[in-house]
Design brief:
It is built from 13 helices and nine strands. The chain is of the alpha+beta class. Bound molecules: acetoacetyl-coenzyme A.
Length: 418
């Protein structure tokens, strides 16, 4: 097994626990929860009892400190059985990361142990009706009022909304500032004025609620502002997404593997022209391509997660690459899996249609794949500055120059503000 090649015993043990929970508590009820749009509390309790919410939390706050790579392996196992449950699990990390990356010691002591024990679930409130990809364009405000902030406005697409007890809410605290507009504030369920309104009727991941959260003059103590000072929320959101994107990418690998396993088995069982369809070369090509894509995505995800654990400088680019590649692969593999099932694949009686429906959102949330490609390209433009030693090999007539004769590159244009 590939897991025996490079991973810590702890990561392998956690992944094995997740696999057992997926087999016993997730896969058997996946169809029912999907149909009814019901949260799988039984599986969530099993995950808490097995200590899997401790995976990403440091030991100082009751966690296992097993890291982002172990978190990815656990998420992959859960998502293999039900992609929706994979995100229901992973979103707790997404909601917790702002506290982990930006919170004060007192805030970490206050919230993280409860999250580690699985007593409190967390959600991440960034997106709004008019601020999706442009995460800096938020409109929800938090105004100072004595020892409190008063939050007004509404958030869109809050995954785990209603189920979660804690919400990391990104708000505008200084509308006059360009670079220090936004702060993150923890809002607890039950705070007066805080309500879950529209529960979305979704194409996929139907077992996890995605909702609108409304803030009608919600008063929260200033001690709930994440960090020592306001204005660093956008940075914390970006750092959070760098840590969380390997998780959504792992969800995608799990989803792809789940679809591939079913397609593989079906291709052995289904006979046409008196032989299993897996005997037909065109089906073999599909299965082989699905396997190659899934396996290559898996290793990029593990590499990105390992970069996050190593606090490597290129985590942002690696996380974006893993998220983009793995989620595109999940969509392609799920589409081909439906094709292998033929007409039956289109029917909800068979489990593969759900993999197809669940896959689409992966390319959209936690940053669309267009945004991921933009993040990757921005890094590449900066990296090109380290490739100057190769410039002699590029004929000069193809290199644009400034009036002063300097070579014009994307990086120098950016620096010059053009
Ligand atoms: N780490 C730390 N700081 C970062 C950073 C990073 N990865 N990326 C950017 N920053 C900093 C920059 O250094 C800059 O700081 P200064 O102002 O001090 O110079 C500041 O943030 C602004 O950066 P940019 O100019 O790059 O910002 P931008 O407006 O061009 O946008 C973006 C950047 C990458 C497009 C960003 O808006 C983005 O990631 N958008 C996608 C939003 C997203 O992923 N939403 C997902 C919602 S969550 C969800 O979907 C979960 C779910 O339901 C399950």
């Amino acid at each position: 097994m590939r897991e025996n090649i490079v991973f810590s015993d702890q990561a392998k043990e956690l992944a094995a626990k997740a696999r057992a929970i997926a087999d016993k508590h997730v896969r058997p009820g996946a169809k029912k929860h999907d149909r009814a749009q019901e949260y799988n509390w039984e599986a969530a309790r099993a995950v808490a009892d097995a200590g899997l919410f401790r995976t990403f939390i440091p030991k100082a706050y009751g966690g296992l400190e097993a890291g982002i790579l172990a978190l990815a392996m656990v998420t992959e196992e859960l998502a293999k059985a039900d992609s929706g449950f994979g995100v229901a699990f992973a979103v707790n990390a997404l909601g917790s990361f702002p506290i982990l990356v930006g919170g004060t010691e007192a805030q970490k002591q206050r919230w993280l142990p409860q999250i580690a024990r699985g007593e409190k679930f967390v959600a991440f409130c960034l997106s709004e009706k008019f601020a999706g990809s442009d995460a800096g364009g938020l409109a929800v405000t938090a105004e100072e009022d004595g020892d409190h902030y008063v939050i007004c406005g509404e958030k869109k697409w809050t995954t785990n909304g209603g189920v979660a007890d804690l919400y990391s809410v990104f708000c505008v605290t200084d509308p006059t500032s360009k670079s220090r507009r936004i702060s993150a504030i923890v809002v607890e369920k039950g705070t007066p004025g805080f309500t879950v309104k529209k529960v979305e009727d979704k194409m996929g991941i139907r077992c996890v609620p995605v909702v609108e959260t409304h803030f009608d003059h919600v008063r929260v103590p200033k001690s709930n502002l994440i960090g020592e000072r306001p204005g660093v929320g956008f940075k914390h959101a970006m750092m959070t997404l760098d840590l969380a994107r390997p998780g959504v990418a792992a969800q995608a690998v799990g989803a792809a593997q789940g679809a591939l396993d079913l397609a593989n088995l079906y291709a052995q069982r289904r006979h046409q022209f008196n032989v299993p369809i897996s005997n037909h070369q065109m089906v073999q090509k599909m299965l082989a391509d699905m396997a190659m894509k899934t396996e290559s995505a898996r290793w990029l995800v593990y590499a990105a997660a390992a970069c996050a654990d190593a606090k490597s400088g290129d985590v942002s680019k690696m996380a974006a690459m893993a998220k983009c590649l793995a989620t595109d692969v999940a969509m392609e593999v799920a589409t081909d899996a439906v094709q292998v099932f033929g007409g039956y694949g289109f029917m909800e009686d068979y489990p593969i249609a759900k993999y197809f429906r669940d896959a689409k959102i992966l390319q959209i949330y936690e940053g669309t794949n267009q945004i991921q490609r933009m993040v990757i390209a921005r890094h590449m433009i900066r990296e090109a500055m380290d490739l100057e030693h190769l410039a002699a090999y590029i004929p000069t007539e193809t290199q644009a120059t400034y009036k002063d004769g300097a070579v014009k590159t994307a990086a120098s244009s950016q620096a010059a503000g053009s």
